[in-house]
Amino acid sequence: MGLFSKLLNRPGSQSAKGFAWTDAALPQVAELEADLKLLSDDELGEAAAAAFSDFAGREAHIRFAGIAREAARRTLDERAFDSQILGLFGLLSGNVVEMATGEGKTLVGAMAAAGYALQGRTVQVLSVNDYLAGRDREWMAPMLDLLGVTSASIDQNSTLENRQAAYASEVCYAAVSEAGFDVLRDRFITEDAEKRIPERDVVIVDEADSVLIDEARVPLVLAGSTEIDPADAKIAELVDGLSKDEHYDVSPDGRAVSLTSDGIDLVEEKLGGIELYGDDSETLAAVNLALYAKALVHRDVDYLVHGGRVRLISDSRGRIAQLQRWPDGLQAAIEAKEGLETTESGEILDSITVEELITSYRLICGMTGTAVAVGDDLREFYDLEVVVIEPNLPLQRVDEEDRLYIMESSKEKALIAEIVEQHKTGRPVLIGTRSVSDSERLAEQLSEKGVAVQVLNAKDDSREAEIIARAGTKGTVTVSTQMAGRGTDIRLGGEEVAELGGLLVIGAGRYQSSRLDDQLRGRAGRQGDPGRSIFFTSLDDELMHRVPEASRFVTAGDDKGRIDNRRAQALVEHAQRVAEGENTAIHRDTWRFNQLVQKQRGLVLEKRSRVRKDGEGQDDVRAKAKDRLVEVEAEFGEEVVAKALTETLLFHLDERWVEHLAFLTDLREGIHLRTLARERPHEAFNKESIQAFASFWPDVVDTSAEAIEAAEFTSEGVDLPAHGMKRPSSTWTYLTTETTFGSDIETFVKKVQRK
Ligand SMILES: Nc1ncnc2c1ncn2[C@@H]1O[C@H](COP(=O)(O)OP(=O)(O)OP(=O)(O)O)[C@@H](O)[C@H]1O
């Protein structure tokens, strides 16, 4: 998004939804203040209730803003700044608001939640994790109470009753994943009393860019237990003994790996003279998965081993991704590589992507520190506009030009020299690294130079608050992996540190996305503090592999290997735009595939609800199993038979959906290969999936009728499990990382699973 569109979406502009009047409204909000101060708490609550019933449109918003500001002042000791009032208007008009780090987005979100609730709407505030959902709700509850708005939060450990009560309150705080899992669980209920989320009305998304764009494609999965074979330990051991270049090659972009002919010979020999590329495609797939796990998935970069388990590291957050796992076969291969026990695995009952979840709400809005760079994507995928809110106090941070080096080693040397130099003055320094292993290496090198460092990485985020609290004090050097997002407010250690220039943020390399860079820079210069940021890059950095033309500059360095050349520096940003463009293209692709799946799922869910509530499908089954049903009805009565029919139909409908979902996944993976030539993949996919879906309901009726014919009735109806209609013994939920890998890996996974 260029400067032009950036300007367009300043508050007061026409393009953001409903936003044309807000700047001018600020004095009017301020005018209310003196009178509102005179009200008792009860009277203020009454005024809040009346704001939207006695007033309308612009006037209602202005009154409400005044009341919310007063409520926050009384209960939280935070009188909302003008910038926060503008943020509130942005959210109440259904936009994504961009406000810098430390500008107080938590309060803005809570005021907006109250504003929607007082208009009779139900609100969910979605955060990126349980901790933030709980913290924010607890923090904001006194204000919401005073405004007469009920609120609650849920987390992983909430019971069914907790959840139902929480979603029934006017404002519910939850992690995105928990809300998604509850939507999935609600799809499989057999009684109304099990339903968790009554409706999805307004959603306020915190860290909107990472949720709506970076994590949009992550599928949340509800799985049911099945038995699976553990990954083959013998193959893992064999593959572990292979050497790079001799036995296998890794592609230059690091995304593919293949055996060399020596590698093939060795594997074939060790597996007792089999022919790897012969008929036994399962062994080949298992070898490929093990090789993938060995060569392309790196410990301390992509995952950690923690408490005897493989824990994925979130790409965009540099932290342990809670509840996240790889597709089953790969997860098992990595567990085998680390010599760990294979964890549970199962059949996917249903899944929902973060994007599907969010777009299922009637109204979406959100806040984040970095949205402008994905403004076009937000418009394309969510029909959302970005509103940029100027900081409460002007930004004082200075962002330096990148320092570009030829080689990784020259970059590292310069980076360390800079840190040592700055540290001598006592200025606090925060260094952001790309991976856990980078952060550990850098910390070690700095210790060798006599610089004491505190390290913050995914291995230990329990001490995060404590480490961050110190990061702005004199003489502190902090090395951290990407810590995008919330709860990381770095306060300067007083006047002395301000005089040293405030916090210095150093990026040890650019991220794939400029937003992640900006989030790191944003740690310095909060609320008008002084600060500075510098990024160090080298032509060796993975990001720079995307721009082959960068190799022209390998001879352009000075004696320290630094390339002081504008054109070369511009290539860094170019590489980032290439990476971001690839991401959008993948997003668009997934989006198109998901459209149809979503439609079919909608039809199935409607059908399911009619089967459950209106007895739909009973006549269809009766038509097929007439004699049998007449017979049992005479013996046990209509009611018993109707209940048995409903249960049987629901069972087969759910099972048929699991099957259809697996078919669609297979189809989607294969489609690119089959349509290389002429047909467009999406069209071919649509055609075939529509064909397959045509038999969905007839199949459900047929299998149900067969089951009814064969079933033994008692006065209780039919004992479904005793007749082979067993639902999974347990279900559990997780996130997968489908999109990190190409379709190859998914194909291997499938083959191994089928084994
Ligand atoms: N109106 C206000 N008056 C005084 N203090 C405020 C006000 N609004 C927010 N704060 C304080 O500013 C700090 C940052 O608030 P908050 O964590 O909500 O910021 P944020 O925008 O979410 O930042 P980040 O992007 O780092 O999460 C908190 O300590 C909060 O108490």
UniProtKB/TrEMBL annotation:
The keyword Translocase applies. Its EC number is 7.4.2.8. Residues 411-579 form the Helicase C-terminal domain. It catalyses: ATP + H2O + cellular proteinSide 1 = ADP + phosphate + cellular proteinSide 2. Residues 86-245 form the Helicase ATP-binding domain. Pfam families: P-loop_SecA (PF21090), SecA_DEAD (PF07517), SecA_PP_bind (PF01043), SecA_SW (PF07516). Monomer and homodimer. Part of the essential Sec protein translocation apparatus which comprises SecA, SecYEG and auxiliary proteins SecDF. Other proteins may also be involved. This is Protein translocase subunit SecA. It comes from Saxibacter everestensis. The lineage of its organism: Bacteria, Bacillati, Actinomycetota, Actinomycetes, Micrococcales.
